[in-house]
Design brief:
Blueprint lengths: L1 H7 L30 H9 L28 H9 L4 H30 L21 H28 L7 E8 L6 E12 L12 H4 L19 E5 L2 E6 L12 E2 L5 E3 L9 E8 L7 H5 L3 H10 L2 H6 L2 H11 L4
Parallel strand pairs: 4-7
Antiparallel strand pairs: 1-2, 1-7, 2-3, 3-4, 5-6
Length: 337
């Protein structure tokens, strides 16, 4: 699940990475906006109808240097350069006002928290199910949900293994044939190439690789897509013509905008992909893999990932994000209860 994957490794499967957190006001990486040392003093000058850069000691006149090799955009230097220009003064005022409001809101939250503590401890409540008298650590609802999701993940992984590894022979080192559409209009043609598979994001895969797109429709009908924090898109990479590329699958249905795979029994298995329209398309296996997966991959059901998700998000949020309905549908479909 994406939230767990990013927490464990900021670099995602498709090679992108999350930007380091910085202050949204002054772009200093060492603090957040609610503790920015520049906000209140800048806001005080604006209230006196003065531009803060008129003070030679102001931060925009002494911006932090940009580390070697880092891009200039989004740094304190680029922000300071923009704020010192008269064309950026209105934007500066707006950002300072926004930052000041955030800082005051944090101070108000801390004041209320301190007041609550002084009145006595609040009754124990569970952050997962919302019940009272217990917390997540001893929540039977959460423990039951975890067991069900782990069981469903293990079941889905067995289906994936039977289809991908045993039936198709797909895995690291497999030779595959791919196709790619080149040219345009009347010159459009399909080329075939042979590549060697280099990686599949095995550790990230679970039952949320399939999210019932056909049933749910687009943006809202019968529930909509599962939330991006829970998505588990399949990423298959292969070296083709000397370059590592992401490989996609053709749609099962004609004129369907998403590619999907069915398992060996013909039941849909994967419809979550991390690819662009112009990536190479899988055609067939030329030579199967000789490196099967471990038994642990089939049976452990991503327990660590499931524990992370239920500790981070509530049952209500997982319901709103369609995770609960997907789990219930999967259990019903495969008689897992």
């Amino acid at each position: 699940m994406r939230a767990f994957n990013q927490a464990q490794n900021p670099t995602s499967s498709n090679g992108t990475s999350r930007r380091a957190s910085t202050c949204s006001y002054c772009c200093d990486p060492d603090h957040q906006v609610t503790s920015c040392p520049h906000v209140k003093s800048d806001w005080a000058m604006f209230q006196k109808f003065n531009i803060p850069c008129s003070d030679p000691n102001n931060w925009v006149n002494n911006p932090l240097p940009v580390p070697q090799g880092q891009r200039q955009w989004g740094t304190q230097q680029s922000t300071a350069r923009w704020y010192k220009d008269p064309s950026g003064w209105s934007k500066w005022y707006a950002e300072c006002s926004k930052a000041y409001d955030k800082m005051k809101a944090k101070e108000e939250r801390e004041r209320k928290k301190a007041t609550t503590k002084s009145k006595g401890k609040k009754a124990k409540s569970c952050g997962f199910c919302g019940g009272t008298g217990h917390n997540r650590r001893d929540c039977s609802t959460m423990q039951d949900f975890n067991k069900r999701l782990i069981r469903a993940n293990a079941h889905w992984r067995k289906r994936f293994y039977d289809t991908f590894v045993k039936e198709l022979g797909i895995g690291n080192g497999a030779l595959i044939k791919v196709t790619k559409d080149v040219g345009s209009w009347g010159n459009r043609r399909t080329e075939e190439h042979v590549g060697i598979m280099t990686s599949i994001n095995w550790d990230e895969l679970n039952m949320f690789c399939y999210t019932e797109h056909n049933y749910r429709g687009y943006r809202g009908k019968k529930g909509g897509y599962i939330h991006e924090n829970l998505c588990a898109p399949l990423v298959v990479k292969a070296i083709v013509d000397g370059q590592e590329r992401i490989v996609k699958w053709k749609p099962v249905q004609q004129n369907h905008h998403r590619g999907s795979i069915c398992d060996v029994q013909g039941r849909e298995l994967v419809d979550q992909w991390s690819h662009s329209w112009d990536y190479d398309t899988f055609h067939s296996v030329v030579s199967p893999t000789e490196t099967p997966l471990s038994e642990e991959w089939l049976t452990q059901g991503q327990q660590e990932c499931v524990d992370f998700i239920t500790k981070k998000y509530s049952l209500k949020k997982l319901t709103d994000w369609n995770a609960v309905s997907l789990l219930e549908n999967y259990e019903k479909r495969y008689n897992l209860k």
